[in-house]
Cyanocobalamin reductase / alkylcobalamin dealkylase (Chanos chanos), 263 residues
Amino acid sequence: MAIPCHTMEDIVGTLRSSLGSLGFEVYPFKVAWYNAVTSSAFHLRHPEDTLAVVILSTPSMFERLFLPFLRSRRCDLVKDPIDQCVTHTITTFISQHFPDQSVEISFDYEILPNRRPKFLAQTAAHVAGAAYYYKASDIPNPPWGDKKMFGVCVHPRLGGWFAIRALLVFRDLEAGPGLQQTPPPNCVTSREDRIDLLERFNFHWQDWNYRDIITAEERYSPQQKEYFLTPPAQREALLQKWGFLTEVQNGRETEDTIGDDSH
Ligand code: B12
């Protein structure tokens, strides 16, 4: 039975203790901080003091949550399995723990009809103090001329070994003066290192070296690397090889395996 939570501290504490044990990190921020840096087309349409929370997945999410999710056979292979797992976990968690709150949930992979992402994950991570967002526009006299270079966030403990998964907006909750903005740790300081980082992310992102721009305390396991290095179209075959998928997920199984819920 969920206990209604009403204060920002309760909410953030509940999110941190529960989602933390599944391999997520949780960072609160105020809508005003995000809107202060983005152009109006990307603004979050909520009053400026509204509590928002950005959720990151750390390397251990794969073993703590994703593999058990696959074993629970909730995965239907219609959507990306990781997206499905994160979506299921977060939406279920919010409805069970905060039934009295109106929470708008957005996921990193959601794109609006106008082709814009529902939220700017990197900006949210930066303003919340989670991971510094390094952008070409911050580099004086950049060496690439007018070429469009995508920016990248670096986490002080995980380097690039993480993903930004979701944004929660607690529509009726004001964060108030108890929440003060802390800048994210700036761990790539020199111009040369920032150029190196952006070149790794833009020109060689497939080799994942951008993730090791600083020494990370935690990295993806060999199994997780194998999963993400497998092209999406071949992941179903990989999961089958690992023994996670049975024919039930393709809708072809007999009833005796349905309902085995070990999640
Ligand atoms: C569309 C998209 C792509 C597109 C285009 C990339 C892009 N950046 O536009 C493509 C397909 C190319 C792509 C590729 C990749 N992507 Co991508 N992608 C996205 C996605 C869905 C949206 C990005 C977007 O459209 N941004 C819109 C532009 C306009 O935003 P912007 O450039 O940041 O501009 C804003 C800021 O500059 C801000 N701003 C202005 N001033 C200031 C000042 C400050 C201080 C701050 C904080 C902000 C700020 O205002 C601007 C808007 O007004 C995000 C997830 C998400 N929901 O955000 C992932 C994301 C950026 N991708 C990610 C990754 C990892 C990748 C890949 C490595 C592939 C992969 N998934 O493994 C490659 C690498 C890039 C490459 N070399 O190709 C990660 C990055 C993680 C990180 N550490 O930063 C994200 C965050 C996904 C995630 N779940 O973690 N991607």
